[in-house]
Fold this sequence. Notes:
The complex is a heterodimer. By secondary structure, chain A is of the alpha+beta class. Chain A has helices spanning 22-32, 57-70, 93-102, and strands at residues 2-11, 17-20, 37-43, 48-54, 81-83, 88-90, 105-111, 114-115, 121-127, 133-142.
Amino acid sequence: MKSLIYRQTLHTRFETELIDITPDVLQILAESGVQTGTLFVLSLHTTTGLTVNEGLPDLEADMANTLEKLVPDHAIYRHARYLPSDGQMAVNAPSHLRGMLLGFQTFFPIEAGEMLTGSRQTIYFVELDGPQSRNFIVQILGD
Amino acid sequence: MIDFHTHPVMIKELLEKDPTLEKNVHQVFGFHFPAQPLEIFRREMDAAGVEQAVLLPVDATTAHGCRIASNEQIAELVEVEPRFIGFASVDPCQPDAPRRLEVAVRELGLKGLKLDPSLQQFWLHDKQVAFPVFQACADLGIPVLLHCGLSWVPSGLAQYAQPLLLEQALMAFPRVNFVLAHFGWPWVNEAVMLAVKYRNVYLDTSILYSGTPRDTYRRVLAEQVGLEVIERSLADRVLFGTNYPRIDMRRSVRGLRELGLSPAALEAIGRGNARRLLGLETRK
């Protein structure tokens, strides 16, 4: 069994942004040549999310709006202080908590070289504290 | 909006070209988070609604043997991004400081001077060290932005950055406009006193000690200083500044907009005062 890891970089534009990374993931799978196995997608950050949903602009807006309602900007958070280990103000508690709701990973089985997804499933990398340079990993385990 | 207080030292392209700067940014300036591409700086400005940003270096040659960053590096950034407004820094403890400032302004096109007495370790009332540099600012017709108050730089000594230490210079150099960064926190009352009395004193809003910008603006500007005091006496002397990347621009802009200032004061603080101070006013 092979274990292949691909590192991808995104430059986001907005504070909250849902980015469809499905085409990138499918291209990586095609290049890997793996026919049978499992594909994992992981964000390397704590103020982003990875989620799977239907790829429609109205739903993207609903998801972003819902996250902002569930975790409001102006609640009182402990994570609103100077962080000496970073040398900057840590004032992005809502970004972390929204990321917690989404999670940071997803996976799909691979069969006959294809990723087994539902017809409406779209993989989103979700920026929650942008704009920033962001990284995600695709790991493919299989033959 | 114009962000009058940014430090362009976590730019990936800049640090990759200058490993010594990268070391000093970590060890002296105390930044320990990942650098971002220059394009992200631009996007952060776009996302925040910031049109232009003042870039501030610090020349700490005597105290720490380094410049964070050099005047030449600032000029290069301005060259590639016209939305940047570059300030110079010189080390007042070096005898050639006035001459170096003249070169930075006349040859590199930089628009003001940044000094950080807490990091550079000089006294603002020292007539042998500080005053020749202030005289050069008068001769060149440029403003000075001074770090004031709490220094988050690990080796920064706040004792050098007390606003009241500037009063003799304010009297001696009435044609030089001085920007007291961070509202002088925790010496906010001293900073406000100077700004109320002296027409050549400006205050920037990059107040960072605890809480979000919204919390801090409310606590310091609304509750401690008073919005009515700002509206009546300081609306033409406060400048929006963030201290980016010690804090993000988006939340700082939102915090200012949500403070409850009148539209006229918000416009002056967010843009108009900076344009006037930098000579960017369009003549009608």
